[in-house]
Amino acid sequence: MSSTIHVTADPESLAKHACHWLVERIQEHCAASPRPFVLALSGGSTPKRLYQLLGELPDGMVDWSRVVLVWGDERNVPADHADSNFRMVRESLLDSVAIPSSNVLAVPNPGGSASAAATEYEALLAGVKLDCVLLGIGDDVHTASLFPGTKALSEQERSVVANRVDKLDCWRITFTAPFINSAKHVAFLIAGSTKQAALHSLWHGQRDVSQFPSQLIEPSGGKLWFLLDQDALGANAVPAGAEVVSCAS
Ligand code: 6PG
Fold first, then answer.
1. Residue 249 has pLDDT above 60, yes or no
2. CA of 121 to the centre of ligand 1 (A)
3. Distance CA 134, CA 22 (A)
4. pTM of the predicted model, to two decimals?
């Protein structure tokens, strides 16, 4: 699986570069297709600054009426809960852009039955083609809510499932690996030295998707990107065949 790796100096320059990179993907899509650009957002803390920068773009840089936002995973908590990925995106992006509410496809009714929410979300996204999926990586090499040793890792048919994460004593709603891998662009956004070991396991660890779930991410026809800061890359050797671009910004 070849990939393209962009490396910036620090988290702020990574967020700025990722914003520029994403605007390029949106603009090239919109120039070539009448279909809206479907962007799957990642949760957690890393992408927050990127979302803020997207919200601060000059008017017209992105035609938000041509962008549909979906969530690659969600905590099974109400949408106004402090842990909600929707709430994080609302506060960092949605409150700043004029995107039609019909273009914001969040997980329906989180906080109750995770299974019901996942089934409803799967139905809502039926037939949707993912243009870009943003992903983070956990210290345990999870991505989205595909955690080590969990049932969702082996799901090959469904696109969205509820996933019990015993180590966090919680339920999550998550895209499955096959759904993520159907995307045109899959981009890991990773910053900070605490991620070096996880990146090493992903790139150079033994092939063990149960232990290292991020190894499941291999776009079937699309492109795999790593948008990193220098601290996340660290002394890691890049995978064979990877294209590496140093992005000074
Ligand atoms: C979530 C994310 C999760 C996240 C990683 C990295 O809901 O938390 O989808 O997969 O991307 O845990 O999180 P940080 O960016 O906070 O390190």
1. no
2. 20
3. 10
4. 0.98
